[in-house]
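Deliverable D2.4 — example input (structure tokens):
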């Protein structure tokens, strides 16, 4: 463990240890380009993950927010998948059963295209304000303007004209470099103690224990476990009231409220386990990278056509981290807004599932195991026979 001049953005601690380094990865992996040339020339930057021994937070200490343009053609919506939209509906139901939001106001920070907020408004009777630089009004044509409004910008307390009763923040905290300031900004818009807070953030536990390199990419500058997520909130003057893993243990679900002094939950107690994981991580991720590089190169050498399923960040990371772009013939995604566009880094053109029928495929590598059944069914429906494996 080295003592550093730098401090942890989550806890201010100084016991930081470098656990991963990549010299040049695309600075955006959620973006899609209109031409192959643009995609190949897409800017790259260095990534250095550091582990904080004091709170368990993992972050890219070289992250530069100016390199990432979230207002551009970011295509993060996963709502085209039945698996994901079913999951989101379940969360809306859970929130509705936890808080009576009828007649209340909800602020969603990082609302993306607004699907979740729209669902929450219609289920609970809350009014909703969504904030996101990547919001596209045309993608939510039938939104009820009286109940639902949006600000196309980064979240800052200065422009939020309400004191919300409920704050939602899904898949956003991992994009925030200065997480301590971000929490202070949330505290600033909250007035009083009768406020509920709901966060959903990817869990880094599997990444650390299995060396899941495809889940590490430039836009994700901040990585949490149940414990480090909760420690950030407690340090920011909040009680964590419910904390668990969902979506095949990929996502942290956390409810919080302004602090009344509730004791920590059992799930928060993971710091010593995390320190052990950080110790073994460099070796583990090297092994996992080697496994998938060999897997792809061997099939390619055998004359097989390899496709990856998932034209999002995981796909871009899978292709660029190990330089296997040449050996992977196709990238498939069910999101029609991605099809026909090009992936940053390797320049693959995204095709729809039907595209595999004409293009031909022997092996499909699925970027998220939770979609395995959904994808196998799709392939069967379109009559494509292939080896299907998940990372
Ligand atoms: Zn820390």
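Example output (designed residues):
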């Amino acid at each position: 463990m080295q003592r550093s001049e730098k401090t942890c953005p989550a806890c201010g601690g100084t016991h930081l240890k470098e656990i991963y380094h990549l010299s040049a990865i695309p600075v955006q992996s959620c973006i899609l380009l209109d031409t192959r040339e643009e995609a190949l020339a897409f800017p790259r930057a260095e990534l250095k993950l550091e582990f904080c021994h004091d709170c368990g937070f993992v972050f890219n200490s070289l992250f530069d927010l100016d390199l990432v343009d979230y207002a551009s053609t970011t295509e993060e919506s996963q709502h085209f998948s039945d698996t994901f939209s079913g999951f989101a509906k379940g969360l809306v139901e859970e929130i509705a059963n936890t808080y009576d939001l009828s007649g209340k106001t909800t602020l969603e920070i990082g609302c993306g295209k607004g699907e979740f907020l729209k669902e929450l408004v219609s289920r609970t009777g809350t009014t909703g304000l969504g904030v996101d630089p990547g919001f596209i009004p045309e993608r939510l044509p039938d939104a009820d303007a009286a109940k639902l409004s949006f600000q196309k910008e980064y979240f800052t307390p200065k422009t939020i004209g309400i004191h919300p009763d409920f704050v939602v923040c899904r898949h956003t905290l991992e994009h925030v470099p200065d997480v301590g300031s971000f929490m202070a900004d949330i505290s600033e818009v909250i007035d009083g103690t009768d406020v509920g807070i709901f966060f959903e953030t990817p869990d880094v536990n599997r990444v650390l224990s299995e060396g899941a390199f495809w889940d590490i990419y430039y836009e994700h500058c901040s990585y949490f476990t149940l414990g480090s997520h909760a420690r950030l909130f407690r340090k920011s003057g909040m009680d964590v009231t419910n904390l668990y893993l969902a979506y095949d243990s990929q996502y942290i679900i956390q409810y919080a409220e302004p602090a009344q002094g509730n004791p920590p939950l059992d799930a928060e107690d993971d710091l010593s386990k995390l320190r052990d994981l950080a110790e073994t991580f460099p070796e583990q991720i090297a092994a996992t990278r080697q496994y998938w590089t060999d897997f792809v190169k061997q099939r390619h050498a055998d004359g097989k056509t390899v496709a990856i399923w998932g034209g999002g960040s995981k796909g871009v990371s899978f292709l660029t981290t190990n330089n296997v772009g040449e050996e992977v013939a196709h990238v498939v995604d069910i999101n029609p807004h991605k099809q026909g566009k090009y992936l940053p880094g390797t320049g693959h053109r995204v095709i729809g599932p039907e595209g595999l029928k004409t293009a031909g495929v022997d092996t499909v590598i699925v970027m998220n195991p939770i979609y395995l059944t959904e994808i196998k069914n799709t392939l069967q429906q379109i009559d494509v026979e292939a080896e299907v494996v998940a990372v």
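The mean pLDDT is 93.
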